[in-house]
Amino acid sequence: MNLVVAVDKNWAIGNKNKLLVSIPNDMKNFRRMTTGNVIVMGRKTLESFPQGQPLGNRVNIVLTGNQDYKVNGAVVVHSIEELMEELKKYEDKQVYVVGGESIYRQLLPYCSKAVITKIDEAYEADTYFPDLDKMEEWQITEESEEQTYFDICYTFVTYEKREV
After folding, report:
1. 2-161: CATH homologous superfamily?
2. For the chain, what are the domain ranges?
3. Closest CA to 140 of 132, 128, 131, 151
4. What are the tens digits of pLDDT across the range 54-110?
5. Strand order across the beta sheet in which 127-128 lies
């Protein structure tokens, strides 16, 4: 399983259920990676999408504790066990965890690759991603040249879990 996330220099990922900043090239990279694949998210992440609707040309899977939650165009599961059962239908490399914070934390142990947009800014935030640089089992395997969007500098960094 993979995950994709944009973080600031403090590993913050969001504030008030919104992304910290919208970088067109980051959005393009997200679309390129996830189109035709499976995205796994929490309810609040889905609700933060345009019109609160699942993203097109992808299998959208929502993990929520709310037993009554239903949404057209998405598969809703209520536990990690139920999610893992659903994911057996797909190849591991087709699956991307896309947030939010609690979903990332719950599913990070199941992921082998993390594609992180590292933004060289610090934003006001209320949600964070675990700092992979402080986790021995993760190593950087690829890093793009620094890119800019107006005055925002960022890089695309791929982390992979070390074989133990």
Report:
1. Dihydrofolate Reductase, subunit A (3.40.430.10)
2. 2-161
3. 132
4. 999 999 999 999 999 999 999 999 999 999 999 999 999 999 999 999 999 999 999
5. 18-19, 12-15, 127-128
